[in-house]
Design a protein that fits this description.
The chain is α/β, with parallel strands linked by helices. Helices cover about 45% and strands about 20% of the residues.
């Protein structure tokens, strides 16, 4: 079976972000269809390590940089600050 590879980012500005992403990653891992790797730096990486996920330490990135990257590269038509709460609800 081919697994879908997922890279999840952890940054040091929000524990809520890390917890949300970690819970999604756990659900993906349980399906057996996904391989999840984390990238980031800071004390929230301890949550990732404690959950047994592989990770790569990378330079810190600000929340604004994450948002800009998402807008430019990944989902410019749906992602903006106005609908971030709706996206978090979908995650849950």
């Amino acid at each position: 079976m081919t697994k879908i590879k997922v890279l999840a980012a952890v940054h040091g500005e929000s524990s809520t972000h890390t917890v949300r992403i970690l819970e999604i990653a756990k659900k993906l891992r349980e399906t057996g269809e996904f391989e999840v790797l984390f990238s980031g730096k800071g004390h929230y990486m301890n949550l990732v390590k404690g959950a047994g996920f592989d990770y790569v330490e990378t330079p810190a990135i600000s929340l604004d940089e994450v948002e800009n990257l998402l807008k430019i590269k990944f989902a410019p038509s749906i992602y903006h600050k106005g609908n971030i709460e709706a996206l978090f609800q979908v995650e849950e």
